[in-house]
Amino acid sequence: MPYADGVASVTLRSLRATLAPIGAAVVLAACAGPGTLRPAAPAGTAPTAAGAARGALPAALTTSPVVATREWKWNATQGLEIDTRNWTIHSSLRSSNLAAALPSFYEAALRNYRNGLVALPAPPRRLDAYVFGTRDEWARFTEHRLGSDAGPYLKMGRGGFTSGGDAVLYDIGPRDTLAIAAHEGWHQYSQTTFTHSLPVWLEEGIACFMEGFRQPSGAPEPSFLPWRNPERYAELRSASRKGRLAPLREVLEGSPQSFLAVSRDSQLAYYAQVWALVHFLRDGEGGRYRQGLELLLADAVSGGIPARVRASKAIPDSRGRRLASESKAGIWLILVYLDDDYDRFERAYDRFVGSLLESNSWDRIMRGESPLASQPAAPASGSAP
Q1: Number of structural domains, the chain?
Q2: Taking the model in full, what pTM does it have?
Q3: Do 43 and 180 belong together in one domain?
Q4: Nearest C-alpha neighbor of 3 from the set 43, 47, 56, 54
Q5: What's the pLDDT tens digit per position in 118-163?
Q6: Could you read off the pLDDT of 283-326 as tens digits, one per residue?
Q7: Is 121 inside a domain boundary?
Q8: Co-location of 166 and 23 in the same domain
Q9: 360 near 353, Cβ under 8 Å?
Q10: Strands (DSSP E) along the chain, which ranges?
């Protein structure tokens, strides 16, 4: 059952006062960069602690990162533009508590993108997020932003999208809105920061990995805990019970859109599987694949993926290496960066997922801890660089 927020209509003046900047303004530089269009993974629901009482000063404002606010208007939609050090948030939210929580949440999310998995650089420009108060406002802006391409996005359920490094979301309840902001924020970060885009399975898997967070009552900002994602964990277990988990190769060769073409349930299972896959790359087999993941992400930043693929001996023929260097799906980057024996890699992943399914450790998940009591030691050799 989704966490329901009792929202109240607030005036622009009262919301602006709530978000009054703390500290001196900073000079804001922006440089536009192209990006690919990515649909969002629809956020799930999760238990959460009760939020601040309606009208109370949000805890996030005790150490607010807001440096400037301005009135913002798009067509008939009115709201605020909120500047932090790294973000500009265009908000028409009716909930003052949710609107006031966004600046601290987004800044903490960006730190998590840069340090939560591997060390990564700062984005080259400010990131823009549009968070609307209603689906109707979001739909009108989506039609404006995407034009003839808007149709598939208007048909999806609760969610949003990222285009050209900008996220476009709407209020779907406090926790769910923040979770999808974290998911889409990763797409914003990668689209603006990486020279070479990641394969779809890894891009979506990391976005799901970045969703997990906890913010106890009174805490100034969230703690990001990648295991604290009961939506993905529950879906992994449900999909397994109903026989809907896809073989890993199908996951690697597919996309959210291709799984949605099968069914909505198939798409949700896909997101759960790529979420588990990124945990496997970080922690599975005693951390055996972590170094390869770090190298892959570093090459995505620098643009070195095509050159490394073309020089790899894991793909025997030159034509295969050329095709692999241009591919955004499939097993190729696993062979080059993670394990030159794909069957061995898949067996290890299946064991990891099997252990997750057997653990049934909801208490550990809700604490943001691995549901696996221990991890097997990493083999001494045999993995790709």
Answers
A1: 2
A2: 0.81
A3: yes
A4: 47
A5: 999 999 999 999 999 999 999 999 999 999 999 888 887 788 999 9
A6: 999 999 999 999 999 999 999 999 998 888 888 777 777 777 77
A7: yes
A8: yes
A9: no
A10: 38-39, 68-74, 77-83, 87-91, 127-132, 161-163, 166-170, 213-214, 223-224
